[in-house]
Amino acid sequence: MCMKKTTWLLVGFLVLKFILQYSLINPAYDLQRDEYLHLDQGDHLAWGYISVPPVTSWISYLIKLLGGSVFWVKFFPLLFGCLTLILLWKIVELLKGGTFAFLLTGTAFLLSPILRLNILFQPNSLDVFAFTWVYYSLIQFFTSGKNKWIYITSVAAAFGFLSKYNIAFLLASLAPALLLTKQRVVFANKHLYIAAVIALLLISPNLIWQYRNNFPTLHQLKELQDTQLVHVNRTDFLKEQLLFTIGAFFIFMAAFIGFAIYKPFSKYRFIVWSFILAITLFTLMKAKSYYALGLYPILLPFGCVYLEHLLSNGWKRYLQPVAVAVVVVMAIPFLLLAFPIKDPQQLAGDLSMHKKLGMLRWEDGKEHNLPQDFADMLGWRELAAKADSAWNLIQDKEHSIVLCDNYGQAGAINYYSTYKNINAVSYNADYINWIRLNKPIKNIIRVYDAGEAEQDMPKLLSLFDEVKQIGSIENKDAREFGTTILLLKGAKLDVNKVIAEDIKEKKY
Question: 402 lies in which domain range?
């Protein structure tokens, strides 16, 4: 009877998560910049990309088979969020938690920052799921002693690696964490090493791809370090970890205390050591704050089960609904701040709290009018419509190309254009590998970042028969505000040769 009740409770949380995920984005917003890149990877399946490992591209391919609508783009990050919740549910069952532990775990996870990750089609939702899956499989192994869970852990780790390289931080923390506890006996188990070989075999196609392509991910990581992570302050990183946990801070504290003194948790203490070591690594590496989000879900079932143990007798039972209410009440400001619920005009007059929390500071280290993620979800349809206007003016489309300054521009044009064969490209990110020069190029639709077209204009006027500015992004709230679209017709030079030389110069 109890199992049936908790199962229905789980179904309720999954349904509620489904409703929330599709309700928290105002229709005024488009998809986010990174989503377009990941969707285009589905048209260029490979064992690796400059930006991410291959799993995201497999999902993109499936999204395209399903029609490619926004519903399906948003469905898959939601799916991985739901799978993460199911794993946490299974851990509460394994820890013999009661209804309150299930209810509090579900509420705390549903209203956590993971909800924010799950609205965007990026590898982050897969990353959090992979972190949780690795932890879950190890918990199952140390509970049951069955070696099959070591092999499942290796599959989970390989899946995580093929989803996002971020899981390397978790794996680097787990080995010393296990050595610090009695669970170090696992290193005497031959199945651990066989499983490690299996994991290596599973990820080997991606490693081979990296080797054959001169390890582009390492080059991208250096560029990321030089252009974005250089603006990350270690103190800010730690402050933002507190913000991530503030709604359920008492649950996380209960988990730490439980790991320290609650005997039923003693065999799982490697988890808390892993958390501490991984947070330390992220801090030292000046990682973006959300890179560490995968570490938090696993603490929820432990904290909730321990709280249930503390609040199970006498008058303390009346504190159980209070604990759930605290999580809900604390989540309301988070929902209002972290999600694009209001359109930009409504939001513009109410950004004081965003400013106080540093949410208006972008990757360039400067403060802007909107949070960066919100600004990255504006202007894309406008860009695609103006690119289409330029494409309409070209008769010889077979010998034409759309060349953009960044991957967001190229991906958005490909997604929203009415011409499904427009195939916009860029020298930026993975698009540099997708430029095709099999036909002579006579016309170019050139998409420039704001302020960049003017300096190229004198040169362009001498290289093409016709140079015409089609328009620019007029939405001042968009990160792409000022992006300019030029139509270049009748090339007087060998465009293919110039592009080939540019690729050679810019490609890693």
Answer: 380-506
